[in-house]
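Sample intake sheet
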Amino acid sequence: MNKSIASMLTCMILLSSFAHAGDYAVEIIVFEQLNNQADESGTYLEQWDFSWKLTAERIRRIKTLSQKATAYKTLDQLFHLETIRTDLINSNYRILETVSWQQPGYFYQNAPIVKFGSTDTELITGLARFYKTALIHVDIDLKFSPTTIQSPNYVTSFNGSNNVGTEQPHYFISENRRLKFNNIHYFDHPYFGVILGVWQVKSPISTGILQDSLLEKPLEFSFPINRL
């Protein structure tokens, strides 16, 4: 994890509470890491240098999860994370996606897989499943496909064959993590990152729409974010 963002998030942690029945408000920011600190030798990026086979498997997983995704209404507005979004923009990070929704607190078997991302360009394809045990968990899978570049090492598409192309890079975040309410969680990658949080809702809403009046008081943050 980048030290500047790690330091930033450390001072933002609030007291958390255990999962209980009720609705959750989810907010997610996906952003591009500009001017990343990978050295010219590629040492920092070695763990992210996927073979075409692994890349194809990741693409297949994204497609499979997309087929299982629930038709869930999401919004592009933020409530708790709006200050963070503004600070990222002011620090020359590129915001790729902002999304929020509300869902019931289901166990894994019944928890919805929510799809989000840029449907027109497929720049970001994201899928997230939030579910409860003693705490809140998330399974998150994201594919970031930035502007096409010329390289023989990238997979352009996967249609069941070993198709290696020269145009489109794909970068992935795929992780399961235990969460706490009212905490800010950061998912790291050399080229892009994810910040998300989950908050308890005072009163359940059946519409799946985030309503400010029913949420706890929003978090107020003010902090510098250094460039990567």
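Comment: Residues 3-201 form one domain. The chain has three helices and eight strands.
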